[in-house]
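The protein record filed here.
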Amino acid sequence: MTDNDADQPISTGGPKGPIKDSLRQPLPKRFYKDVTLAPARTGTGYEVHLDGRPLRTPLKRILIIAEPAFADLVVEEWRAQTAVIDPAAMPATRLANSAIDTVADNRAAVADEIVAYAGSDLLCYRAANPSGLVSRQNDVWDPILKAVEETIGARFIRAEGIVHAAQPEAVPHKVAAAIEGLSDLQLAAAQLITTLTGSAILAIAHVRGLIDADAVWSAAHLDEDWQIALWGPDEEAAARRAVHERDFRAAAAALAAKA
């Protein structure tokens, strides 16, 4: 790579694609020595510099992060790279790229995706049996669901099994209003949490500070953990969950960061 390679985009795009890409393509070699933060030259926020040159997104936009704590996470990811640059190990960078390259230009579509999850939300579909699982779902999910309902002013319909239960007409509007004021980075984080957990309700609960990140992750995996307790862990599933949790923690950090 040349001395100008810090000005070239590296394939560390949105939260979903780069991991698969990195499995198919050789990883780029680390070409830089120093990683620093600098005030953004345009607007507010911080630029991540590699050997003094600003890092760019896959769409060749300068990576500017408004939240200093999250910018620090991105810096640490780039410092942690060794001989090669592994996008799969850089969830904060991928999320920041997604916020700039995808969310900023498509806020309505991203919000609509979150709203769509609320129509078939994990927390609204309950097991009919065994009784222990039913009780566990009620104990963990009901307080979260009630808190979100009270916060956004909507009531969700609960159902047993997999038969679809349509939500009241007010639900999509209330969910959309609950995420309307988020920054691009926060909206990217909320979308990622929604897709990783299968629950817009859990995402909203965390966005609104009703439950912490650990509670979100635990609630999202209640059914899986029940099965693990019965039958034991599955190595492939555990590896997949670890990768997802790494992305989830980056999203939670984005929501916790202040501009």
